[in-house]
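Deliverable D4.2, example record:
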Amino acid sequence: MTDDPSPMLRTGRRPTTDAPIQTDTLIIGSGIAGATAALRLAADRQRQITIITRANDAIDSNSQYAQGGIVGRGLGDTPESLIEDVLRAGDGISYPPAVQVLAEEGPDLLRAVLIAQAQVPFDRGKNGELLFGLEAAHSERRILHVGDLTGKAIMRALLATLSEHPNVQMLTGETAVDLLTFPHHARDPLAVYQAPMCHGAYVFDQDSRQVRPIVAQQTILATGGLGQIFLNTSNPPGARGDGLAMAYRAGARVINAEYIQFHPTVLHMPGATKFLISEAVRGEGGILLTPSGEPFMERYDPQWKDLAPRDVVARAIYWEMLENDYHYMLLDIASHMNAEAIKARFPQIYARCLTMEIDITERPIPVVPAAHYFCGGVLVDTWGQTSIPGLYAVGEVSCTGVHGANRLASTSLLEGLVWGARAARHIQDLPAPDRVAERDVPPWDTANLVYETDPTLIQGDMQTIRNLMWHYVGLVRSDYRLSRALRELRHLWLAIEDFYRKSRLTDGLIGLRNSAQAALIVARAARMNLVSRGNHYREDGVDG
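Output generated by the structure prediction step:
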């Protein structure tokens, strides 16, 4: 397997013209959910699939950064056991039909798509048997992994398999600006009487700086999360809430936006994006300690202790740091696993920590919490359909209901796999809709653009958003903090929208606009919900 399979795809930049592109299915995002949907749709050789990604490399998505693994079906495991664990972690608001779909279909799809078709090299024992790991709040060992590089291994394999399909085209360096919806974008004024429908997206080419429509019969949003709207996050730079903001502007229903999962253990280091220390480290026996070496999780969860759900662990670390003026806590695996086993099981974590002069085989890892996973999103049904016909959402941008108020570890990759496959299946079963004629789609309006985008202003505004969200809409919330966040975010959003409508586009400006919108969505939802539940914890709220 090559280190970087993406060049094997039919990739590249589009011609420098503003004429629309016609395709059967447009997929916005190239992570596990989007890639799985494309792979399943590509079985129909007559169907043209176009994938776009704002990254310069197709593999650069949230999915490739997943370390711990993906939920399978362990020895003696059952769908009922997984359902029970997911519902417990979701704290009472996971959607049971969606959880049942995940538990019953997920492990079989994993074997069919990732193992049999894509040939992901999951870790195996001496006799070739799959090795299953344990992670927090799981009652069984059911996590399949490739060391601590599971996401990267999965994405390399999926993209390599996609390269075998000539009807799949990958366009890199392409940023979706807005969804193309009728009647909003229709030339015909009488279209206002018709029901809304998505027909693709307006897309910005980062090289030519031109915007043109990609017209599609179906559009699948697979844009990932929004961790970059917080000061500290495990997410890569592209996780700006782009898909959420576009769907919201188009009128799609969004739910559970207040539920942001903060990962309890990321490496204490400078910068907004912080290196994740996988939950699997605690699954293999790692213990959380104060800087003075005292275990503390038993005080917060006597039953699960260090393997408590993420929201419990993250808040425990937060409170310990706040009450004792600690700058970080410690995660000790060296005392519970021998050096060679640590290097074999966690090669990426070991290597990355060494660059910070931390040998995790000899000393504990300094860790802090950080924004990690968006449990809410664009509401979809069990087939990935949004409230707008023609628009599907899969992966982290969507809210299937599986995660409820708190995501169970390693279910995100499986959810992306399942809903990517199910969206493709639903699309394949649809009768072919009438194509939208190019003449009915207006070109992007570039009139009255008087400003060139100033990167310094974008950086400053993004930093303001991140600070507001971290301090006022973070792990512990209150009405006063949320009210202040909303006041300042509304003012900033208005200024950004005004500047956006007068400025020549850049990827950074598009991302800033979407981040401001996503931050407002999250902050509003958090203020409206007075019940403390799962990832949404209010000091002045009532218990769920």
